[in-house]
Design a protein that fits this description.
Elements lengths: L8 E5 L10 H14 L8 E5 H7 L3 E3 H10 L8 E5 L5 H14 L4 E6 L21 E2 H4 L16 H11 L3 E6 L13 E4 L5 H14 L5 E4 L18 E2 L4 E3 L5 H16 L4 E5 L20 E4 L7 E2 L4 H10 L4 H9 L13 E2 H13 L8 E5 L4
Parallel strand pairs: 2-12, 4-5, 4-8, 5-7, 8-9
Antiparallel strand pairs: 1-16, 2-16, 3-11, 6-7, 10-11, 12-13, 14-15
Organism: Halarsenatibacter silvermanii
GO molecular function: ligase activity
Pfam families: F420_ligase
């Protein structure tokens, strides 16, 4: 497709239902034959494949009982433990099955949830009302207050009650605290800590370990990447996982860089096109109405080809340059030529460089949509030109 009046564009590509027995690469190549026939494929395009279809085609699932077994056998957690689960995001899709596994693993003990406030890590409102910073609030002492609202402004769900019910269903005891200090609850009677945050997990884990050392407490401290982590399944472990049917949990895809590289090679061999590949997850954008940050995955791009490595999106502030040069007396054609030929002063180059793969993955996620529009692949054109 060579239209000189069209800039960056993105096309959602429809793919059939992808199940574990489907050869995903073959399905993609068959669809790209149609794209080539319709003149849609060009050198420099970026083909984005959502992580969910890759993981599904790999049958990359674990069950709640698989998680329980690993916690018992590999991490030394037993049914009588008091387990501190720290900073989970408030999400049915992302955390309900994981919490069920944690509660089942300590069914004769207790699950203590430490929830950040007033929002979780990705911006979901946990509590609406005035709570002072720097405290550890027991939810049981707060929930009767007329001045506090624990219902999510969009879903209407009280996630603290929702998580409490999950723990109760597994017969474990529960406590829920609102507290933003990672080391604060280490003082309590706990046997192990699972850091459940996404982007702050390393910092949170370090603070928990430092606090435990200061108290001379020997406790198991892990984050979600430590659980169900294998080279074949997912190097991210439970981080970036999603709720599936029944008691199954879909993990992030295994070997996404290898898949991306192989797909790029196949496209080159069949179509003689140099096309980059991204295996994408959540986009890195924030809802201006709710304040929710969409990136509940650890990264926007689980895998990508070498042509995107360290590639930055740079450019000039087009609207600023037009105003500037028009004010200096240049005519329209002269301004267009100067900008096109990059004959601009260094200090006028105003956009903050950003990683191309993150921007492209975010664009792809906006096109495909969390509600799944049946377009798990997105072809992005003219972004890298």
């Amino acid at each position: 497709m060579n239209l000189d009046y069209v800039g960056v564009s993105a096309f959602g590509l429809k793919l059939g239902a992808i199940t574990p027995e489907v050869d995903l690469k073959t399905e993609i190549m068959d669809l790209l034959v149609r794209c080539e026939q319709d003149g849609l494929l060009d050198d420099g395009d970026v083909l984005c494949v959502t992580e969910s279809v890759l993981a599904r085609s790999q049958n990359n699932y674990v069950t709640v009982d698989d998680v329980v077994e690993e916690l018992h056998e590999e991490h030394g957690i037993n049914e009588n433990y008091n387990l501190l689960v720290q900073f989970p995001i408030t999400s049915r899709n992302r955390f309900s099955a994981i919490l069920k596994a944690f509660a089942r693993a300590v069914k004769n003990g207790k699950v203590i949830i430490q929830q950040s406030y007033p929002r979780d890590e990705v911006g979901n409102l946990v509590v609406d009302g005035d709570l002072e910073e720097g405290h550890a609030y027991n939810y049981e002492e707060l929930k009767g207050s007329q001045d506090l609202d624990f219902n999510h402004p969009v879903t209407g769900i009280n996630y603290l009650e929702f998580y409490q019910d999950i723990i109760n269903e597994e017969m474990a005891e529960h406590e829920i605290y609102l507290c933003n200090d990672p080391g604060r609850l280490v003082d309590e009677d706990i046997d192990a800590v699972i850091i459940s945050s996404i982007h702050t997990r390393r910092r949170d884990k370090l603070q928990v370990i430092e606090r435990a050392k200061k108290l001379d407490k020997f406790i198991e401290v892990m984050d979600l990447t430590c659980i169900c982590n294998s080279e074949e399944n997912s190097s991210w472990g439970l981080l970036g996982s999603n709720l599936s049917a029944g008691e199954k949990i879909k993990l992030a895809p295994g070997k996404p860089f290898e898949f991306s590289s192989q797909l790029k090679k196949s496209i080159k061999e069949k179509f003689d096109r140099e096309i980059e590949i991204i295996v994408y997850g959540d986009g890195a954008y924030k809802d201006p109405e709710t304040g929710i940050y969409e990136l509940a995955d650890p990264v926007t791009s689980f895998g990508f080809t070498s042509g995107l490595e360290d590639r930055m999106r740079r450019g000039n502030k087009y609207k600023y340059l037009v105003d500037k040069y028009a004010g200096e007396g240049y005519e329209q054609e002269e301004i267009e030529r100067m900008i096109k030929e990059e004959k601009v002063e260094t200090e006028d180059e105003g956009t903050t460089p950003r990683k191309a793969k993150d921007l492209i993955a975010s664009l792809a996620d906006l096109i495909s949509g969390s509600a799944d529009e049946g377009t798990p692949m997105v072809l992005v054109k003219d972004f890298l030109s």
